[in-house]
């Protein structure tokens, strides 16, 4: 049986994705008609990313059995009431590796005090070893767990926090409100890798930021909604937070004139922490199409009630 697979992830992405997808589908032994346009009622599977030319109403896709997101974060589609099919988010080895490199790089930059190094004055200040620099990893999913393990391998004590109780190698795991407090009270570096849901909105706010040790560093490659921006700016100005590296924002691109741009202890990166890599992610898509064809459970299904 030939499956009609609609690439509904933006015309601009098609040139990057067409060859890897065709190759991965072929390698998975799937007979597929991979297209960028099709009558909605003919579509068996949809590959999706939010954007201008992607569907907002899924009602006409009556035969579609699954929507496969190219993005890890699904907050722009998860609440769509017209979407009744299973929704799978992206867990891609290339994306995970990119996030590990971003988080480890910026954590080491904070740990070693790279921004404060002076080339003009001889003023030795020996940084502590990683073992003396606890890191809080808020979110222990595909990305948080990988980043936490990489930091733990470098010697950082990693305290993790998730919605449900977890057991992750090399990470001291906590959950619940008390768990959050315990993790933040010890953290000199905080990494936020939580999804954007109503329950995670402003998880870093005036109260939770007040639990941090003086001078802690925030690294947010998760989502802009995780942080109460006014509270973070106040905590930076008060010294409670020593520095922040922010990759994601409530409004993107971050508007010109936003206080983050000019703040001396804020680094803005333009949502580049980790991108889905077609060469590795196409294999993940093809495996889910194979599972669908063979009646097996899909990988990385979104829990619609939890919102991620
Ligand atoms: P994931 O596998 O779904 O993991 C999410 C983690 O967050 C899980 O550990 C989950 O807890 C925890 N969580 C969710 N709601 C929570 C709550 N209310 N309280 C405490 N913990 C909560 O997601 P992922 O693949 O690691 O990705 C995480 C996020 O990174 C994405 O949602 C996306 O927003 C962001 N991201 C950013 C970029 C970028 O370039 N900046 C790239 C990719 C992804 P449980 O383990 O108990 O379920």
Characterize this entry briefly.
This protein has helices spanning 14-27, 93-112, 142-153, 176-186, 206-210, 229-238, 259-262, 278-294; strands spanning 3-8, 32-35, 45-48, 66-69, 87-88, 135-138, 158-162, 171-175, 189-192, 216-220, 241-246, 266-268. It is an alpha/beta fold.
Count of domains: 2
Considering the protein shown, what is the CATH homologous superfamily of the largest domain?
A: NAD(P)-binding Rossmann-like Domain
Q: Give a short account of the largest sheet.
A: 7 strands, parallel
- What portion of residues is helical? 25-40%
Total helices: the number is 8
The CATH topology of the largest domain comes to Rossmann fold
Distance between the termini: 32 Å
**Oligomeric state of shown chains:** single chain
Report the radius of gyration as a whole number of Å. 21 Å
Q: What shape does the CA trace take?
A: elongated
How many strands appear in the DSSP assignment? 12
In spatial order, strands of the major sheet run 8-7-6-9-10-11-12
The hetero molecules present are: NADP nicotinamide-adenine-dinucleotide phosphate
Would you tell me the overall average pLDDT? 97
CATH level 1 name of the largest domain: Alpha Beta
Structure description:
There is one protein chain. The protein has 308 residues and is an alpha/beta fold. It folds into 2 domains: 3-92 and 276-294, 3-Layer(aba) Sandwich (Rossmann fold), CATH 3.40.50; 93-268, Rossmann fold. Helices cover 30% and strands 17% of the residues. The chain is built from 8 helices and 12 strands. The protein has helices at 14-27, 93-112, 142-153, 176-186, 206-210, 229-238, 259-262, 278-294; strands spanning 3-8, 32-35, 45-48, 66-69, 87-88, 135-138, 158-162, 171-175, 189-192, 216-220, 241-246, 266-268. The protein has a 7-stranded parallel β-sheet with strand order 8-7-6-9-10-11-12. Strands 2-1-3-4-5 form a 5-stranded parallel β-sheet, covered by helices on one side. Strand 1 (3-8), helix 1 (14-27) and strand 2 (32-35) form a beta-alpha-beta unit. Helix 2 crosses helix 3. The radius of gyration is 21 Å and the shape is elongated. The two termini are 32 Å apart. The model has no long low-confidence stretch (mean pLDDT 97).
